[in-house]
């Protein structure tokens, strides 16, 4: 690990230890979240799922968002990847309209961010004339399952659910970017720290509509097994299998017609 990677890891550990509400969760393969991953031992199924995702550009192909609804600055739509938690299946975003509708920034906060996180940044962007859309990650804020106080379901020892939540988040970013009524002339950028960087980097490389990415406090690796019982070759195999999107070719970029993005003058109600 290089100097930057060691610095990031030290800083992440310091920030982690500040949080007294963390829980130690049991390991789970979470194969039920991966659909039909095939037969065989769990590790082989996860690897097969990862290889299939890397070979199919449709894994991150975006579709127009369904059931768009705006009330004031609050935007909701259905997630393109349905999870086992109904509260998590509605995407929430907050719109900060700027005077220039041809430029917009998608802001994706860090893991376990509060609802107020990065609101100041969004307001600063509007002062610069740029529209900002703050997107809530899966299992965060209003999307958190009942009884939870942290977004433990987004990244956890449950491999399948972590993969599903990551794909869910990437496709939601892509859907926000596709909500542009002036797609031919608009410029989208993304701004995000921590896990938001992992999510939006995948969105950034899969859709040329997002022309700029600002990746703040980027981890040098998505995750790493730290338990005492697994041999290194098995743990390395799991995390290599779960690093979806590390191989990408521009030949397979999806092309989806844009949908109408609700402007500041749009009344409350559904958006078709």
Terminus-to-terminus distance: 49 Å
- Please report the first level of CATH classification, the CATH class: Alpha Beta
- Mean of residue pLDDT values: 77
What is the overall number of helices? 6
Q: What is the ordering of alpha helices and beta strands?
A: HHEEEEHEHEHEHE
What structural class do the secondary elements suggest? Answer: alpha/beta
Count of DSSP strands: 8
Number of domains: 1
Task: List key phrases describing it.
272 residues, Rossmann fold, 18% strand, single chain, 6 helices, globular, alpha/beta
Can you tell me about this structure?
α4 packs across α5. The chain is globular, with a radius of gyration of 19 Å. The protein is of the alpha/beta class and 272 residues long. The chain has helices spanning 3-18, 42-55, 119-127, 159-178, 195-206, 232-241, and strands spanning 66-71, 74-78, 90-96, 100-107, 130-135, 187-193, 210-216, 269-271. It has an eight-stranded mixed sheet, sandwiched between helices. The chain is built from six helices and eight strands; from the N terminus they run ααββββαβαβαβαβ. It has one domain (3-249): Rossmann fold.
Task: Summarize the structure in short.
With 272 residues, this protein is of the alpha/beta class. Helix content is 30%, strand content 18%.
């Amino acid at each position: 690990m290089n100097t930057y990677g060691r610095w990031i890891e030290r800083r992440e550990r310091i920030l982690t230890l500040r949080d007294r509400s963390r829980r130690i969760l049991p390991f789970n393969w979470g194969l039920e979240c991966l659909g039909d991953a095939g037969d065989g031992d769990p590790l082989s199924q996860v690897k097969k799922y990862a290889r299939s995702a890397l070979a199919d550009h449709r894994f991150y192909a975006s579709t127009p968002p369904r059931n768009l609804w705006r009330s004031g600055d609050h935007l909701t739509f259905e997630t393109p990847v349905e999870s086992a938690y109904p509260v998590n299946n509605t995407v929430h975003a907050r719109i900060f309209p700027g005077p220039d509708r041809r430029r917009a920034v998608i802001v994706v906060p860090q893991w376990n961010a509060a609802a107020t996180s990065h609101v100041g940044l969004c307001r600063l962007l509007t002062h610069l004339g740029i529209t900002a859309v703050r997107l809530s990650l899966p299992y965060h804020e209003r999307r958190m399952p009942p009884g939870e106080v942290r977004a433990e379901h987004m990244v956890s020892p449950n491999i399948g659910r972590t993969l599903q939540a990551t794909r869910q988040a990437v496709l939601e970013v892509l859907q926000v970017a596709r909500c542009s009524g002036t797609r031919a002339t608009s410029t989208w950028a993304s701004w995000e720290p921590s896990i938001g960087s992992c999510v939006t980097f995948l969105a950034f490389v899969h859709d040329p509509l997002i022309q700029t990415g600002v990746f703040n406090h980027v981890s040098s690796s998505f995750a790493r097994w730290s338990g005492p019982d697994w041999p290194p070759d098995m743990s390395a195999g799991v995390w290599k299998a779960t690093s979806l999107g590390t191989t990408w070719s521009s030949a397979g970029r999806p092309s989806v017609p844009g949908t109408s993005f609700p402007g500041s003058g749009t009344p409350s109600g559904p958006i078709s």
